[in-house]
Specification:
Oligomer: single chain
CATH superfamily of one domain: Winged helix-like DNA-binding domain superfamily/Winged helix DNA-binding domain
Order of helices and strands: HHEHHEEHHH
InterPro entries: HTH_MarR-typ, MarR/SlyA-like, Transc_reg_Sar_Rot_HTH, WH-like_DNA-bd_sf, WH_DNA-bd_sf
Subcellular location: Cytoplasm
Number of strands: 3
Largest sheet: 3 strands, antiparallel
Keywords: Cytoplasm, DNA-binding, Transcription, Transcription regulation
Strand order of the largest sheet: 1-3-2
Helix content: 55-70%
Organism: Microbacterium schleiferi
Structural class: mainly alpha
Shape: globular
CATH topology of one domain: Arc Repressor Mutant, subunit A
Strand content: 5-15%
Distance between the termini: 25 Å
Protein name: MarR family transcriptional regulator
Number of helices: 7
Low-confidence stretches: none
CATH architecture of one domain: Orthogonal Bundle
Length: about 140
């Protein structure tokens, strides 16, 4: 079953990230938040949730932990108090260099060539989009 193969791959990948990120006390989802912020900041909680496909109930505790670790700060918008903006602290920005080895380490754990990993990622994105489109048409 394809679904079990994807599930097993997800678990194996998450475990590889867990081992790699352990020295920094970060989880894989927390790392993903940092990666998003390294690419572009500030970001709203809604933007991060949309980009990472995480609901606010999952994202808020992640952000609280990252804030407690001193990697991000949250601020309410002055125009709309419902909007919360996330920014990296200097410590969070500096972490980018410390964790620059992570993608290479994960690639090493995968044990497949970069071009194969990119092709697989493309196929999985297409698969995901197809399922999402099919689910949307049945709502």
């Amino acid at each position: 079953m394809l679904c079990f193969s994807l599930y097993a791959a997800h678990r194996a990948t998450t475990q590889a990230y867990r081992r790699t990120l352990k020295p920094w006390g970060l989880t894989y989802p927390q790392y993903l938040v940092l990666v998003e912020l390294w690419e572009r900041e500030p970001r709203t909680v809604t933007e991060l949730g949309d980009d990472l496909i995480l609901d606010s109930g999952t994202l808020s505790p992640l952000l609280s932990r990252l804030e407690a670790l001193g990697f991000v700060v949250r601020a309410r918008s002055t125009e709309d108090a419902r909007v919360v903006t996330i920014r990296l602290t200097d410590r969070g920005a500096a972490l980018r260099e410390e964790l620059a080895h992570v993608p290479g380490e994960i690639a090493r754990c995968m044990g497949i060539p970069l071009d194969m990993a990119q092709s697989l990622a493309s196929e999985v994105r297409a698969y995901t989009a197809s399922i999402q489109a099919g689910s949307a048409s049945h709502v």
